[in-house]
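Figure 2 data, in text form.
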Amino acid sequence: MRSINLAILGGDGIGPEVMDASLKILNKIGELESVDFNYEYALVGGCAIDEFGAPISEGTLKMCKQKDAVLLGAVGGPKWESLPQDQKPEQALLKLRESLGLYSNLRPANVFPALVGASSLREEIVSGVDVMVVRELTGGIYFGTPKGATKDKGWNTMVYERHEVERIAHVAFDLARKRRGKLTSVDKANVLDVSQFWRDIIIEVHKDYPDVELDHMYVDNAAMQLVRSPKQFDVIVTGNMFGDILSDIAAMVTGSLGMLPSASLGSEYALYEPVHGSAPDIAGQNKANPLAMILSVAMMLSYTLDMPRAGDILVEQVSQLLEEGYRTQELYQAGDKLVSTTEMSELLIEKLKSAYKAESPN
């Protein structure tokens, strides 16, 4: 039996709840696929600050590097907002990205047919939306120096080196080649020298991908176009800060942050997490939507663990559950079937059992 070792970082708020629901799903897939999933748990985020005085420990980082992949729930909450910037729970994310070399963040924004009505945009605008945002994750303004603040001034520096732009460009072009063959590079080259540098290198790398259509868009226009006409996009590649903003806009086009997964990939390591936050207002109430975390597991199966069939089946069964009207609280509307976090995972387990049985009737 194949053995896979995973680092499990539940984090804060609803993080441990959606993680628990997802691991139940993963255990069932392991049973159905004859794969043995082994888990090692560690604290990260606010709970790690409370326990150890830091958002992530060196021991946890070392453990993550010894695993086949990392699963992360969510971090942060009002309890820790008054801490200095370099001590907040979110610093754990930056540390993970930097230490594991997770330079590429993939955030798909797909509209499930059953959730077309959940978007604040008209159905004809969002129906069929399938966008992949590729965000550079370890460079740009979040990591550039000099940076700092005094009583009268604060400053950060947006810096990109050639190799950082080249490698994220290759990731984006490769994805576009496997999808619909179009890549949109987003920058602010009309104002920022660093963005003109970004654009020039994207154009250079494009020479290796003549079969992929490339266009460029300023970030302010891209934000508007994502809301105005999101179906024009296939793959979007952009820098760290612009990607942070645009991926959240793309997420809300779909109607709910609670449905969106993400992958953070590097040359050696991989981390998967839902897009949503820790939602401390509903933590511990069994109300959280686990589907973004579960869909992150599906991405892990496909991208890192070489189990694309299992990933596809999982996504298909999530879509089926939604078609049948099952919703957790944040997506619930009159006429839907309201379920809890644990009930959603239990329903999905039954779906998976039926799907695998249908594929192997003997």
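Caption note: The chain has a mean pLDDT of 95.
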